[in-house]
Amino acid sequence: MTDIIIQGICGRMGRALVEKISARTDCRVIAGVDREAGRVGEIPVYASWQDVACRGIVIDFSSPAGAAAAAAWGAEHGIPCVICSTGLSSEELDILQKAAEKTAIFRSANMSLGVNVLIELAKQAARVLGGEYDIEIVEKHHRNKLDAPSGTALMIADAINAEAGGQYEYVYDRSQVRQKRGDKELGISAVRGGGIVGEHEVLFCGAEEVLTLSHSAGARTVFADGAIQAALFLNGQQPGMYTMTDLLRGKLPCE
Q1: What are the catalytic residues?
Q2: How far apart, in Å, do the first and last CA atoms of the chain sit?
């Protein structure tokens, strides 16, 4: 049985995690950390990591500052951490890197297994299609999302660009430039509206055909599922920085 501590337990993702984990037999939530101390059902909630006396793998769905605090606490006590918060500054990322020298740190901008399989497929498509196809990424999210483009769209773009040796330039807005598309452009477009949980499309556009890879999240629980899988994966791992690529390595067929 794997013990789990959830940071951000009172938020939407925290509640989704509690619900998902309660239905499992291989892990359990033993504590939470959030802005105010209290309880979520029978689970004790602490307002600070300094107040947490129990030990369990951390899943963080809070904020950049919260993620850094969780990683620092994990490093101090040798506790693995799954960092799901996005928008971390360079200083906060440095804290994660230093924590990874003392404990296992798992970080991904998107915890959906499906999205990360999409990224692996996009990398394969980039290898096969090379510079013969134009690449565009379109992401869609709910009207309340603050950042654009999404961290996931950038994660997809970075994976493709790394596969291509860094040759692409990201283009976010074509409205101010009247010129044809450049050969080394990678377009990224954002749509905001309604209650869209998250949709991502990667288009490889050839002269006579278009290959579209897409993923649509129907509910936030898919991110909870991925975070749980990451926590179970970290159990027993050596110190270091881990990503979805490491998790999927055992799930995808060898190339």
Answers
A1: 141, 145
A2: 33
The alpha carbon of residue 203 and the mean position of all alpha carbons in its chain are separated, in whole angstroms, by: 21
Domains of the chain: 2-111+220-248 (3.40.50.720), 113-217 (3.30.360.10)
Distance (Å, whole) CA 13 – CA 86:
13
| Per-residue pLDDT tens over the stretch 146-174 | 888 988 899 999 999 999 999 999 999 88
pTM over 0.85? The answer is: no
Letter string b/e over residues 190-205, b meaning 16 or more CB atoms within 10 A of that residue's CB: beeeeebbbbbbbbbe
Q: Tell me the mean pLDDT in the region 74-93.
A: 92
Per-residue tokens: 174:
């074509």
